[in-house]
Amino acid sequence: MENNFHMDSAEQPNAPVPTSDSLPLAAESPAATPASVGTAATAISGTSSDAFTPRTDLSALSRHADAIRAELGKVIVGQRDLAELLLTALLADGHVLLEGVPGVAKTLTAKLLARTLSVPFSRLQFTPDLMPSDVLGTSVFRPQKGEFEFRPGPIFASVVLIDEINRAPAKTQSALFEVMEERQITQDGVRYPLPAPFVVLATQNPIEQEGTYRLPEAQLDRFLFKLSVGYPTVEEEIAILQGHHAGFGGTPLEAVKPVVSADELRQLREQVGRQHVEPKLLEYIARLVGQTRAHKGLYLGASPRASLALLNGAKALAALRGRDFITPEDIQYLAPVVLRHRIQLTPEREMEGGTPDDVVKQILQSVDVPR
């Protein structure tokens, strides 16, 4: 079978020049991203310039985050909120599912983020005939040695981009369960750890259903965030057209350089893990997630993994915004992107036109905010 992937490295300057199918179409305006949260999004918007002096020195984290944003800005127009949430997931050591119609730069954004990190990168194009061994690797018999030797697959990289993840059948999807949760694979009874850091960035098209397979709930639960990438504003699309007319703005993908090493990312993640969290905020997270299990409009609520995702994500978001402590607004801002793929509406609620984001908004309004 023909391979459906290619290997690359964030340190190599040979990324392909984008075609018209992968134009850097910017995402929606700040009010429309990351989850159409509405009031929760606006409530947090002012926290990035808090007057508090942090007890932890976050200057290195801010410097690296700004460097990544600057590199992304060389090619991408807009998408500020998307970039912030991708950085949040990166610092929280979580995987991200990017959902959007074709042409809104899901794949391009993921590739550019990988290029800003000095770590190995690989890309897999999921297809209906893809087998688990095409992803994980396989054992090859070596006649000279008279034994089998494991040949690693493309999953053995630090940043793995999976394009059209919902096009592979359940057998291949299940091969990702151990990889995404335990950062290892088990082949012929032998454990093979993956490189650190390890992040999966997956894309899918929510509209086209032909030739696709619904992702299992167990796999969806392993994604830290599900981000909806929408259309750009008129002003952003004009800027895209101007840049493309001028020859992609004179900035090919090779201009995006690695600015963060694996060791630096590890240190930043350790710093994020030490963020201060009040006990009442831990209770707030537990109550929010617990309400998804009792809501009348849902037949599947979120698991404790969602609570951990909210906690880790809020720590990273607070650090990105210059604080060494989290606030209720951090939790509210991230609740939709953490919960929308972990809950399932009842058939009646779906027929009424409800969405998971609507339910999350109701839950946020129903749970008392700690003060």
UniProtKB/TrEMBL annotation:
Keywords, sorted A to Z: ATP-binding, Nucleotide-binding
Disordered as annotated region, ranges: 1-32
Source domain of life: Bacteria
Example of a GO MF term: ATP hydrolysis activity
Entry-linked Gene3D superfamilies: Magnesium chelatase subunit I, C-Terminal domain, P-loop containing nucleotide triphosphate hydrolases
InterPro entries in the record: AAA+_ATPase, ATPase_AAA-3, CbbQ/NirQ/NorQ/GpvN, ChlI/MoxR_AAA_lid, P-loop_NTPase
Classification via SMART domains: AAA
Residue intervals of the AAA+ ATPase domain: 92-233
PANTHER family the UniProt entry points to: MAGNESIUM-CHELATASE SUBUNIT CHLD, MOXR FAMILY PROTEIN
Family: Belongs to the MoxR family.
Protein name: MoxR-like ATPase
Species of origin: Hymenobacter actinosclerus
